[in-house]
Amino acid sequence: SSPDPPVHPQTLQSSPVPQLRLTEEEKRLLAQEGVTLPGNLPLTQAEERLLKKVRRKIRNKQSAQDSRRRKKEYLDGLESRAAACSALNQELRKKVQELEKSNGSLLRQLQALIKETSTKPAQTGTCVVV
């Protein structure tokens, strides 16, 4: 009889160990802190705290950048509106000057007409009633 084939212990297929994925920014900040995290999960509580701290720093940095960007956009808008208001103000001042000049001219003409009519003798007219 032929010998039985050798029995190989079954290799257990365990689920793959989840990998820790870090962004470049996270890696850079961790290096600044002098920390190297293992590539596999789970992390220890201390490592979790450090990772949370680094992620919070990144969120705060992003939030500050967004805040500065919004402030700059707001200021740019205000400057643009101020420039438009200045231009309109200049136009309106010019228009007021023109109207004051025109008003003065019309006033002089009116005064001349009043003077002219007051110096003429009153005309007598005949009214015919039918």
Brief write-up:
It comes from Nicator chloris. With about 130 residues, the protein is an all-alpha fold.
> What low-confidence regions span 5 or more consecutive residues with pLDDT below 50?
8-13
Shape: rod-shaped
Could you report the average pLDDT, rounded to the nearest whole number? 85
Question: Strand pairing plus helix content: what structural class?
Answer: mainly alpha
Question: How much of the sequence is in beta strands?
Answer: under 5%
Into which percent range does the helicity of residues fall?
55-70%
Secondary-structure element pattern, one letter each: HH
Record field, number of beta strands: 0
Biggest sheet statistics: none
Alpha carbon gap, first and last residue: 159 Å
User: What radius of gyration results from the CA coordinates?
Assistant: 46 Å
Query: In DSSP terms, counting alpha (H) and pi (I) runs of 4 or more, how many helices?
Result: 2
Membrane topology: Single-pass type II membrane protein
Pfam family, one: bZIP_1
GO molecular function: DNA-binding transcription factor activity, RNA polymerase II-specific; RNA polymerase II cis-regulatory region sequence-specific DNA binding
Region (Disordered): 54-74
